[in-house]
Amino acid sequence: MRIHVVDHPLVAHKLTTLRDKRTDSPTFRRLADELVTLLAYEATRDVRTEQVDIETPVTPTTGVKLSYPRPLVVPILRAGLGMLDGMVRLLPTAEVGFLGMIRNEETLQASTYATRMPEDLSGRQVYVLDPMLATGGTLVAAIRELIKRGADDVTAVVLLAAPEGVEVMERELAGTPVTVVTAAVDERLNDRGYIVPGLGDAGDRMYGTVD
Ligand SMILES: O=P(O)(O)OC[C@H]1O[C@H](OP(=O)(O)OP(=O)(O)O)[C@H](O)[C@@H]1O
Ligand SMILES: O=c1cc[nH]c(=O)[nH]1
Ligand SMILES: [Mg+2]
């Protein structure tokens, strides 16, 4: 597994506002969207392309276009949904699948409550979106499902990662074609499995849940 931490002042600036507990839900959603677009630029560095012949008003030339089969983008509901628009803005022809997953806040075990994506992902590049890589349980389960369906290149785009979760992914997904692109790797997890300093519960902050 490869990990790429995007080191850029605009990313750091937006992430700082996202972390701030005073940032309200509409601003949180807008910043998450902008941040994903910046991360997507790095995450798609190896997106597959093919050569294409075109004519400019001046002369024939060759360029590139995204290859078929099209990439698949999979947001992990709920919080990953807030990253979808920012990603498909850069990849407008991508197909979109969905995975609904929830982490039990007592046991920290992830479970899947909804799956809607192609059965056969052979030869497909897949971009998984989830703002938080905490214990790693959610992303490991999601990526195992994608690889089981035949995906041969998976990139997870996350806003924040914990070192514990990165270690779990490296161990559990060793030898698989997986890359993680993130805005930061934070200090640690607390005893409730939250990232420190983190940004709190991404889904709650994005959608205004207060329970
Ligand atoms: O790395 P892990 O320890 O598995 O934790 C990370 C997961 O927890 C959060 O989702 P949550 O279960 O809160 O669901 P939500 O998006 O519906 O709020 C987050 O969006 C990740 O999916
Ligand atoms: O810090 C964390 C950990 C898991 N899920 C979140 O939303 N935030
Ligand atoms: Mg949540």
From TrEMBL:
EC number(s) recorded for this UniProt protein: 2.4.2.9
Q: Which reaction does it catalyse?
A: UMP + diphosphate = 5-phospho-alpha-D-ribose 1-diphosphate + uracil
Task: Quote the Gene3D superfamilies the UniProt record gives.
Answer: 3.40.50.2020
UniProt binding sites for 5-phospho-alpha-D-ribose 1-diphosphate = R78, R103, D130, P131, M132, L133, A134, T135, G136, G137, T138, D201
Q: What is this protein called?
A: Uracil phosphoribosyltransferase
Chain ranges of the Phosphoribosyltransferase domain = 5-209
Q: What organism is the protein native to?
A: Streptomyces niveus
What does the UniProt keyword field contain? Allosteric enzyme, Glycosyltransferase, GTP-binding, Magnesium, Nucleotide-binding, Transferase
Q: Which processes are annotated in GO (biological process)? A: UMP salvage; uracil salvage
Q: Which Gene Ontology MF annotations are present?
A: GTP binding; magnesium ion binding; uracil phosphoribosyltransferase activity
The family assignment reads: Belongs to the UPRTase family.
Cross-referenced Pfam families = UPRTase
InterPro entries the UniProt entry points to = PRTase-like, PRTase_dom, Upp_B, UPRT, UPRTase/APRTase
Q: What is the superkingdom listed in this entry's lineage? A: Bacteria
GO CC annotations, alphabetized: cytoplasm
**Pathway the protein takes part in:** Pyrimidine metabolism; UMP biosynthesis via salvage pathway; UMP from uracil: step 1/1
The record describes how the cofactor is bound as: Binds 1 Mg(2+) ion per subunit. The magnesium is bound as Mg-PRPP.
Listed binding positions for uracil are I195, G200, D201, A202
Q: What does this protein do?
A: Catalyzes the conversion of uracil and 5-phospho-alpha-D-ribose 1-diphosphate (PRPP) to UMP and diphosphate.
Entry cofactors: Mg(2+)
